[in-house]
Design goal:
The complex is a heterodimer.
Chain A (H helix, E strand, L loop, with lengths): L9 H45 L2 E4 L2 E5 L3 H7 L14 H28 L5 H13 L2 H11 L5 H10 L14 H26 L3 H10 L3 H12 L1 H16 L3 H7 L12 H11 L3 H26 L7
Antiparallel strand pairs in A: 1-2
Chain B lengths: L8 H25 L10 E7 L4 H17 L3 E7 L3 H10 L6 E5 L3 H6 L7 H6 L9 H5 L2 E2 L2 E2 L2 E13 H7 L7 H13 L5 E2 L4 H10 L17 H15 L3 E2 L1 H4 L4 H6 L5 E5 L1 H9 L5 E4 L9 E10 L6 H12 L1 H11 L15 H5 L4 E3 L7 H15 L5 H17 L1
Parallel strand pairs in B: 1-2, 1-3, 7-8, 11-12
Antiparallel strand pairs in B: 3-11, 4-5, 6-9, 6-10, 6-11
Helix pairs in contact in B: 2-15, 7-8, 9-10, 17-18
Classes of the chains: A mainly alpha, B alpha/beta.
Chain lengths: 319, 414
């Protein structure tokens, strides 16, 4: 027998290699994505679907206790602790919306101010950037625990206010319903503004400098430059920060839980939607009803995000 | 390209994925199965779940369990401390892997027993010829449901009046016994510049005063709410007036977490707390001169009893051994070791209480258990919020009690 000849001509072999390589590339991609995707499906998609399923049942400690159809949703519609009409402070939904309405603009404004400040050519810029961002890195539980001490009736804040005001101040900030939620607002505005600052900073630095040069040539004042040029060009930043901020505010839980010991605070002033969900699930062990609360909250957040997307469109810079 | 030298990218990706999966599986298995080493002896291991509020309490429990294991060498007890307790227990119930013996607070007992997670004890008690007669009847009844017994009380505490004797001496007044005397003592303390009374806006304290005025929360059969009575309105109004007039202050106003801390830091002269404050004061504020006195009264004596039971899980796999442990812990020997070491009050009449707590035992006759009906956790939260609103002046006491009545009635209907 002669030397074993090549079984396939060169041309076909190259074609086969190309097709195999494409399939292999695809397989490699799927393999890398496979594990995180599995995690995402198992821990995010599956619980959401399962929560939707058990919201139609009366689900107790030991499992299914009975099919209720839309009974849970009807009960939630009439639940005075969850929401009332007309809106009233002290209900879960209206507390959360009131909190969001105040905190989101304040966070955006403070984040923007800090971003403008650290974007300017001042010395130790990097230090200030790190310093302003630092509160966002720390655990919110730890910050709240310390804030409870500082905002005590005999605490540091009242001591400082007494010195400034000249007469003794003894307000228990977290202990009375008129100031408890507002104190949490102040705490969160300060903590999260660092993250918002970073987003605004990124958008700010992507604005080309020739716009500012043109403005300088035209002789615009600092304020007009900011209001007429910088602010509109930050639209993608506004949209992104607003969406994140609103979603985060609607999910407020840990500060409300720590400040009130899980009870919803003095006279239900710190009762938020997620805290109400937690109380129903753990305090009452009514997981079907708690799942209903979760689904309704999901629907509200989804609605907000959808409205924002439709109103403000895609995040695109256009000069 | 030289494919033979290095493994292909697909193979690498798949190998990494398999490695990641293996590591995850391995650590999960290790956590689940590796912690309980196989027993060399033939002893059965049962678990006891509890919460823990101080190192002294933990040491006392361990001492009691060690004594049990010496008496019954064939049973090993693994004690686990859960924090937070209700959440940890709910997770274990839901997983059908509950501890064999565990604490049940009297306030969550109706929820747990109505959901069917507790084992009835009547059969075991009858077979072992153990009677519940030595126990205080009020406490045993707290753990009965539909005629069956589901737990035995392990200890208890009522409220009493703790007084800073030095402050009262400086104000030149004697210890009050009625509401009227409490009012005048409070005014005297205020005029003498001494620390005020400490009162919390908490149903777990205000309810005692409602009982003292002849009111209540639920009727005896626990089928109806009676929150909306004139006696209750008067009691709550008096309580709030003490706070408004300045002779009493809340813990928040005093800058403390609870009234016990106020007594210790000498920010309050009179507080109403239970036996837990005795060990707390002795350990944390030993220099303060204070003493315990009986609870005040008005039209009647009225007090709340906070008690915890040992119960056995319905899904327990070692019910016989669990009952042996429960019988020991609730028997005279076990209870004596526990209460003497931890400083708690025994729930049996034939066990002598630790020193300095006789005042609490005398409150037993006027004690109503701190317990309602299934699903009342939210009602208690509503009650506390309504009382806080009434205290802050956002609504009248009548409105607050009417709202609490509505919430209680709704919970009873479910």
């Amino acid at each position: 027998m002669a030397v074993a000849a090549r079984t396939r001509p060169v041309g076909t072999r190259r074609l086969e290699t190309a097709a195999n390589a494409k399939v292999r590339e695809a397989l490699v991609g799927y393999a890398f994505v496979g594990i995180p995707l599995l995690y995402f499906v198992l821990f995010y998609l599956f619980p959401i679907g399962y929560a939707f399923y058990i919201s139609f049942y009366d689900w107790g400690i030991l499992g299914k206790l009975g099919y209720r159809g839309f009974g849970n949703y009807r009960e939630l519609w009439h639940d005075q602790l969850f929401w009332t009409w007309p809106p009233k402070r002290g209900t879960a939904i209206w507390n959360t919306l009131y909190y969001t309405a105040i905190v989101v603009p304040a966070q955006m404004a403070l984040g923007l101010a800090l971003a403008l400040a650290v974007n300017a050519r001042i010395r130790a810029r990097t230090f200030f950037r790190a310093a302003y961002y630092f509160p966002s890195l720390t655990s919110s539980a730890a910050i709240t625990a310390i804030a409870i001490y500082i905002l005590n009736a005999d605490g540091l804040l009242n001591w400082a206010l007494s010195k400034v005001g000249g007469h003794p101040v003894h307000t228990p900030w977290f202990g009375q319903s008129s100031t408890a939620l507002e104190s949490i607002m102040g705490l969160n505005i300060w903590t999260t503004s660092g993250t918002m600052m970073l987003f605004y900073l990124a958008t700010l630095q992507s604005i080309p400098t020739d716009v500012y040069e043109a403005a300088a040539i035209d002789g615009t004042s600092r304020w007009r430059t900011f209001w007429k040029i910088t602010f509109p060009l930050l639209k993608p930043g506004h949209f992104f920060v607003a969406v994140l901020s609103i979603i985060g505010c609607l999910k407020l839980f840990d500060q409300a839980f720590i400040v009130s010991g899980g009870k919803g605070g003095p006279a239900y002033s710190t009762e938020t939607a997620v805290l109400y969900l937690y109380q129903t699930a753990i305090g009452d062990a009514r997981w079907g009803y708690a799942a209903t609360v979760g689904i309704v909250l999901f629907a509200i957040i989804f609605l907000f995000t959808l409205v924002q997307r439709l109103l403000f469109g895609k995040a695109e810079i256009g000069y | 390209m030289n494919r033979s030298r290095f493994p292909s990218r697909t193979a690498t990706a798949l190998a990494l994925a398999a490695l990641a999966a293996a590591i995850t599986a391995g650590t999960t298995l290790a956590k689940a199965g590796g912690s309980s080493a196989p027993e060399a002896r033939k002893a059965t291991t049962i678990t006891l779940a509890h919460w823990n509020s101080s190192p002294v309490e933990l040491a006392s429990l361990r001492a009691t369990l060690a004594a049990f294991e010496r008496t019954y060498p064939s049973i090993d007890v693994k004690e686990i401390s859960l924090d937070p307790y209700p959440e940890g227990m709910l997770a274990r119930f839901a997983a059908r892997k509950p501890p064999d013996v565990f604490y049940v607070d009297s306030s969550v007992f109706p929820d747990w027993v109505s959901q069917g997670v507790l084992e009835p004890l009547d059969g075991y008690l009858a077979k072992a010829k153990v009677t519940t007669k030595p126990f205080f009847p009020n406490l045993v009844n707290a753990f009965k449901y539909k005629g069956k017994l589901y737990g035995l009380p392990k200890d208890w505490s009522p409220l009493a009046m703790e007084v800073n004797t030095a402050a009262l001496a400086k104000a030149g007044v004697s210890v009050p016994t009625t509401w009227a005397q409490l009012q005048s003592v409070g005014s005297a303390l205020k005029s003498a510049g001494q620390p005020p009374i400490c009162l919390s806006i908490d149903l777990a304290r205000i309810l005692a005063f409602m009982y003292q005025n002849g009111g209540g929360f639920l009727n005896a059969a626990r089928t109806q709410a009676v929150v909306n009575s004139a006696a209750n309105v008067q009691a709550v109004q008096t309580y709030i007036n003490w706070l408004k007039s300045g002779i009493a202050q809340t813990p928040a106003q005093l800058g403390v977490g609870w009234c016990g801390e106020a007594l210790g830091k000498e920010k309050a002269s009179i507080i109403f707390e239970g036996n837990w404050v005795t060990s707390y004061m002795n350990e944390t504020f030993p220099k303060v001169k204070w003493a315990t006195f009986p609870m005040v009264r008005n039209r009647a004596r009225g007090n709340l009893g906070f008690t915890v039971s040992y119960s056995i899980a319905k899904d327990s796999k070692h019910k016989t051994q669990a009952f042996t442990l429960l019988r020991y812990l609730e028997g005279p020997t076990g209870m004596r070791i526990w209460t003497n070491a931890a400083g708690f009050l025994p729930s049996r009449g034939d066990v002598k209480p630790p020193a300095g707590r006789a005042v609490f035992l005398k409150e037993a006759a006027a004690t109503h258990p701190w317990q309602f009906a299934p699903g009342f956790t939210k009602v208690i939260d509503t009650a506390n919020s309504e009382l806080q609103s009434a205290y802050e002046g956002k609504e009248s006491v009548q409105t607050a009690l009417a709202n609490i009545q509505a919430a209680a009635a709704a919970a009873l209907r479910r």
